[in-house]
């Protein structure tokens, strides 16, 4: 299976800060990468698909980039409601879908 | 609006089986697939497998092969996930999630609310 390595595992930032999370695949996955947001006690929510496309209704402060093995997820201006854990997920090696370990985002 | 509503929490003994349901509404059930994803307490997400609601084709995660069965009932727009020979490390919240297309694409746009399965003697 393809391994997805996210970093950092957690971060603390102030409201208004730019937040960046990275995700590295163990092999080339082209742009077959999604990003999900999971708030405590809730199901995950799709934010970004195909590495850089914003899902309908998702605020534009969220963005994604990258291809191949290295990907970046950015929150341009952190808001209090963005407190959550964020997961990357590859779907290049179907049927073996795999998720990264998650990045917990907290407010400083 | 699209909704996936799952069955309630379960407590099972080691070695038992559990069957979780996921009732879909707000869309044509047979036009999409359903994946199941689980999350152990304090841990990350683990994809378990997928079923086509169109023709019942399945793909299971290798580590669960032989212990998991996914089915659908198109008459009630409900998907089911049965896990057998339960162990303590199967304790998790189990989610169903709609895949984007009829075949397995691996992009999950709607999720159920989750079902906690606790395995304990």
Task: Please tell me about this protein's structure.
The complex is a heterodimer of chains A (108) and B (121). Chain A has 108 residues and is mainly beta. Chain A contains no helices and 11 strands. Chain A has strands at residues 4-7, 10-13, 19-25, 33-38, 45-49, 53-54, 62-67, 70-75, 84-90, 98-99, 103-107. In chain A, a hairpin with a 2-residue loop joins strand 7 and strand 8 (70-75). The termini of chain A are far apart. The mean pLDDT of chain A is 97. Chain B is 0% helix and 50% strand. Chain B contains no helices and 11 strands. Chain B has strands at residues 3-6, 10-12, 18-25, 33-39, 46-52, 58-60, 68-73, 78-83, 92-99, 108-111, 115-119. In chain B, strands 2, 4, 5, 6, 9, 10 and 11 form a 7-stranded mixed sheet that branches. The mean pLDDT of chain B is 97. At the A-B interface, strand 4, strand 5, strand 9 and strand 10 of A face strand 5 and strand 10 of B.
Concise description?
The complex is a heterodimer of chains A (108) and B (121). Chain A is mainly beta and 108 residues long. Chain A has strands at 4-7, 10-13, 19-25, 33-38, 45-49, 53-54, 62-67, 70-75, 84-90, 98-99, 103-107.
Annotation keywords:
heterodimer; A: 108 residues; mainly beta; 50% strand; B: 121 residues; four-stranded antiparallel beta sheet
